[in-house]
Structure formats: structure tokens, C-alpha cells
Amino acid sequence: MVATAEKKDESGVIINDLISEYYKTCHGLAPTRISEREFGVGNFDVKISQRHMSFRSERELKDYLAVNSVPYVSSSPALYRYPTARPMEKKIWLGSELVFDLDVTDMTLPCQEKHGKSWICRICLDEVRNETLKLIYDFLIPDFGFSEGEISVNFSGNRGYHVHVNNEEVMRLNAAARKEITNYIAGIGIDFADLFPTAGKKGEKLVGPSAKDRGWKGKIAKNFLANLNEGTDSLIRMGIDRPTAAKLFRSRGLVRMGIENGNWDMVYIKNKGAFWKGITERQAVSQSDRIDRNVTNDPSHLIRLPNSIHGGTGLIAKKLGSPGELRNFDPMRDAIAFRKGFMKVSVNTSHEIYMNGQKFGPYGGEIKVPAYVGAYLYLKGFGRIISFN
Ligand SMILES: [Zn+2]
Fold it and tell me: Is the domain of 286 the same as that of 375?
């Protein structure tokens, strides 16, 4: 009956009690059409140790998670006629949401060089939130015409965000159509010759993507303008040599006016066609391969249940009311599960943790902290919980 290997020491007993308590009182846990989804649950060692499960109602799901103090629960973006059947083919697929999984560990950030890939700092969380906003507001809404109401966003519970697109048309898409969407978002198949049609033609003005263009062309122009706005160093990071970067930045008003209208010829650059093609091509690739890795195309993939607990942090995989709320969302404040009480913990960490608007740590030894901080430190492996009250 008990699906999860519970933690047996005192720390584990306290955490298990908190998880049970959370599931007794939480709201909004059932995904739409809950009885047609496959569920999987895990323990503190394996995030999915048992799958092919199903629940008929939120009540049944919550009871199961509370009774068993389940630290990880996932559900299928797919709907099935028989969600518990196996092998997979016997489930009979009825449709599937489109899911994007954005994770800090797939990104390369300067702060990670300081604190390592296993830790997540405030900068990391801001960066992955910005990537998620870009996916929604630069691709899903303008280029695919999805509405905000068809897009739901949740914090993953640890180091990223999950974006679910759910409308009738998306649900029915076959594997090839899904691949086409992800290829487009990843920029696969962009024709660079097409970006600068007059490149190499002597005496002709260099015409290129304009900030008003739809799709990738517009994104490339806007991305360049954003870097231009940032300054010379930002242009150098795009692969532009220092003298040219300085020249572009000096004439930024003129350059901006040109590119906004598709004229890339406002300042003199030697071999301009080849130069701009090289720069924009590199930009598209660096923007796209990050997105490519974050797309979930495996139809049998289970993904963290929105509003469930993440057993590696004690945070909630909090579902936002609307995608726009992401702009002001701080998971270390808004996704806290264990709001009540304090813990005495014995921990050792050199990290600073910002939770609920306050700084905690670094710590070495016994300390009394809010329960959510104690749980986070313990679940991240920095020590143990002595008591909770
Ligand atoms: Zn960081």
C-alpha cells in the first residue's frame, strides 16, 4: 500500500508530517480531466518509483498523497482512455498538452561558475523566469496565436518553470506537428540567405530583418537592438570586434532607426553582408539551442503535478493564476509550503538563502529558523532537523 520509502530518522518524520499536512489542506491540485491522466509517485531517492496510477477525483488524489506523505508526484500531459493500462499502447492515447520544461541547469550563467550547477541563486531564478517569459511572449502568443488563457505556467518546485499549452487543437496534434512547433521555436530551418537578400550585391543598400517583422526575423532584429542598447560590451559578447562595436554604439540612434525599418546600412562596415549574416546567425543559434533542450516531445513523459510539493526543496510547484503573473513571481516567497512554525536545525552551508524577503545563512551549527528555511536546508542536504514546533 505505501508507495514511498519514507525517511525514517527524526528529520524525515518531521518532513513527512509536513507533507501530509500540506496535502490535507491544499487546493487546486487536480489537473483537468484527472481520471484520464496517468500519475506517477516517487520517494526521496527516485522521483518516479511507481507509475501507471490513476485517480478519479481531487479528493482521492489528496488522500493518497497525504496518507503516504508522497514527496514527488507527476502526471501525464497526455490523456488516455485507460490510464493504468500497460504497456503504453494499451492506454489508448486521446490527446496531449504541449509542455515546455525550462530549467536553470540547461543554462550557462556567470553566477554558476561561482556557486556550481547544483545550487540555485536569485540570479539563476531571475534568468530562468526571463527565459520562460520570452517563450510565452516572444513565441507562443505572437507566433502561434495561443491566448494567455490557453497557457498555464507553474514553478517546477526547484530550478525552473513548466509551461503547459492546452486547447482542443493542440491536444490533437500528432508527433510530426509537435516536432514542427518545437523546430520553429528552436530556429531550426531558418534560411540565413533569406535574412539579408541584398547581401553581396554591389552598390545596393543592405536590407535585413526589421523589428516589425513577425517570427524569427523580428526576434533577430529586436535582439540586436537590445544588445545595442546595453552597450559596447554587450555587442562584443555577440561576436563583434571592439572598434566596430564602439562605432555602432556611438551611432546607436541612427543604427536603431535603420534596423527598426529593416535598413542595416546606416554606418559603414567593411564586407557588411558577410559581417551581419555571421552575427545574426550566431544569435539565432545561441537563442535557439537553449529552447530546443527545453521542449518535451516524449509523449509518455510524466511531469511534476502543478501545486504539488517538490521533495528536494519543500517548495510548491506553484501554478500561477495567469502567465502574466510570472513577471512579479518570486518562488522563494510565493511557493513556500511550510509557512507555520520554526525548526531547530543543525546545518553547515556557505550559501546565503533568500526566502520570504529575508536573508538566511551562511550557517555552521545549530540554529532556529522558520520551518520553510529548515526544510529547504535539510532537503538540499546541508544538515538535519532537530525539532519542529
Ligand atoms: Zn546563480
Answer: no
CATH of the domain at 49: 3.90.920.10
Listed residues: CB within 5 A of ion ligand 1: 111, 121, 123-124
Same-domain check for residues 201 and 286: yes
- pLDDT tens digits for range 84-135: 999 999 999 999 999 988 888 888 888 999 999 889 999 999 999 988 998 8
Distance from the CA of 114 to the center of ligand 1, in angstroms? 8
Phi, psi values for residue 2, rounded to 5°:
-75, 115
Q: Which of 38, 64, 91 is the last residue of a domain?
A: 91
Output the CA 130–ligand 1 centroid distance in Å: 14
Q: What is the pLDDT of residues 300-342, one digit of tens each?
A: 889 999 999 999 999 999 999 999 999 999 999 999 999 999 9
Distances (CA, A) of 54 to 78, 79, 85, 253: 13, 11, 10, 59
pLDDT in tens, 189-225: 777 678 888 888 888 899 999 988 888 888 889 989 9
Answer with the one of 91, 117, 149 that is the final residue of a domain: 91
Instruction: Say how many domains are in the chain.
Output: 3
> How far does residue 288's CA lie from ligand 1's centre (Å)?
21
Q: How far is the CA of 129 from the centre of ligand 1 (A)?
A: 13
Is 143 inside any structural domain? no
Q: Active-site residue numbers?
A: 101, 103, 292
Q: Among candidates 103, 98, 211, 209, which has minimal Cα distance to 155?
A: 103
Mapped onto helix, strand or coil, the DSSP state of residue 228 is helix
